[in-house]
Write a structure and sequence with these properties.
Length: about 270
């Protein structure tokens, strides 16, 4: 078939538009029941301090100090903002938000719909799980990084998301990175909102981007990754190095946080 130049341009344009549209993520099956008290749609005009705390788990991250004032809720979105300002001996500030509720694990699914900061600002955006402070009774203090954007190892790749598993035992007090996986989307993640999902069930962790499973990890060597309740953390981190001042202030936007529990089908239960 012979195509005119105009027709070719239309086809290419349609392909580009389709490739940049985000697909709304959803639980992997219809067996998932929303836990409203462990979820947040950010529909109010201020942060729900019953569900969240602005207190950071550590005071600084690289060249950034955490500033609780850099967290806001308005027009249906949570925003974590990075700024060029001096605080605690640092020249830049960012934000750290930890849930007071748990991802219960052992048959849970977490979904966060978010839009990362413009890649040109060069700021790491993260969605992860941990409980601060790190207590001995929570050993081995498993950390699940659901999503990290613009880690130093990504070399500025705006399409890449990385998921990583860590443990932080109180004794002997040695941090261990157990595994990680990277996944490249078709377009830069900062162009639009995307859904980031984590399923913890049946002795496995499953990681999703826009409903697509890109990593499954068997936790036989450390079952606490699945079984131990974990807080959800949304933060900006200093892992990307120096930001670009001309793109500051810049905000990591979150549309919603939803946590589900798994229920067996009636057919299987019978």
């Amino acid at each position: 078939m012979i195509m005119t130049r105009k027709f070719k341009i239309i086809i290419v344009s349609l392909i580009f538009v389709a490739s940049t549209m985000t697909v709304s993520g959803q639980p992997p099956s219809q067996n998932w029941i929303l836990i409203p008290e462990n979820s947040d749609e950010f529909d109010g005009s201020s942060l729900d301090t019953i569900k969240w705390t602005r207190k950071p788990g550590y005071p600084v991250s690289g060249i950034y100090a955490f500033n609780p004032d850099n967290i806001s809720v308005s027009r249906g979105f949570l925003r974590l903002t990075a700024r060029k300002e001096s605080l605690k001996g640092k020249s830049y500030t960012c934000a750290f938000l930890e849930s007071n509720f748990n991802d219960p694990g052992n048959g849970s699914y977490v979904e966060v719909r978010a839009k990362t900061i413009d890649v040109r600002a060069n700021i790491c955006c993260a969605i992860w799980e941990q409980n601060f402070p790190l207590y001995k009774e929570n050993d081995p203090n498993p950390e699940i990084d659901i999503q990290e954007y613009l880690l130093s190892g990504a070399n500025g790749n705006p399409n890449r998301v990385q998921s990583t598993l860590h443990r932080w035992p109180s004794k002997p007090g040695v941090h261990t990175q157990d595994a990680y996986q990277t996944h490249d989307a078709l377009v830069p993640l900062c162009y639009d909102f995307h859904t980031y999902g984590l399923e913890r069930r049946d002795g496995k962790l499953r990681f999703y981007l826009d409903g697509h499973k890109y990593w499954e990890y068997n936790v036989a060597s450390m079952p606490e990754y699945v079984t131990m309740p974990r807080h959800l953390i949304i933060s900006l981190e200093g892992h990307a190095g120096n930001p670009v001042d001309s793109y500051l202030p810049a905000s990591f936007q979150v549309d919603y946080v939803r946590i589900y529990r798994f229920e067996e089908t009636k057919e299987k239960m019978n």
